[in-house]
């Protein structure tokens, strides 16, 4: 992975906590990169979740609340109404 230099100013208390938590074999840079990767994944996941909720609401507004399919699935598993 190609790396790019960047200057970041951390609050001194947060920096002290981070230095205490990192392993002695781990560089501070690696700790920050891992934390940033984690945050990017979390935010992408949250954004996807929000899109799912919005789409679900749009479908519900268009079609109304759909009945639960649990009973239909159970009856199909038991062989009722199957065509084979």
Offer a concise description of the structure.
This protein is mostly helical and 84 residues long. The chain has helices at 12-21, 28-63, 70-77.
How is this structure best described in words?
The protein has 84 residues and is mainly α. The protein is built from three helices and no strands. The radius of gyration is 25 Å and the shape is elongated. The termini are far apart. The mean pLDDT is 90.
Radius of gyration from the alpha-carbon trace, in angstroms:
25 Å
> How many strands?
0
Computed structural class: mainly alpha
- Per the principal axes of the C-alpha atoms, what is the gross shape? elongated
Major sheet attributes: none
Low-confidence stretches: none
Along the chain, the helix and strand elements come as: HHH
Q: Distance N terminus to C terminus? A: 54 Å
Report mean pLDDT, rounded to a whole number: 90
Number of helices: 3
Strand content: under 5%
What oligomeric arrangement do these chains adopt?
single chain
Which percent range fits the helix content? 55-70%
Kindly list the characteristics that best describe this protein:
84 residues, mainly alpha, 3 helices, 0% strand
Topology, element by element:
Elements: H1 12-21, H2 28-63, H3 70-77
């Amino acid at each position: 992975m190609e790396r790019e230099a960047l200057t970041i100013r951390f609050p001194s208390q947060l920096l002290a906590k981070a230095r205490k938590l990192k392993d002695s074999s781990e560089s501070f840079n690696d700790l920050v990169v891992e934390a940033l990767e984690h945050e990017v994944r979390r935010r992408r996941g949250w954004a996807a979740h929000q899109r799912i909720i919005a789409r679900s609401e749009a479908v519900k507004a268009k079609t109304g609340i759909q009945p639960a399919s649990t009973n239909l699935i159970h009856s199909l598993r038991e062989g009722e109404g199957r065509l084979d």
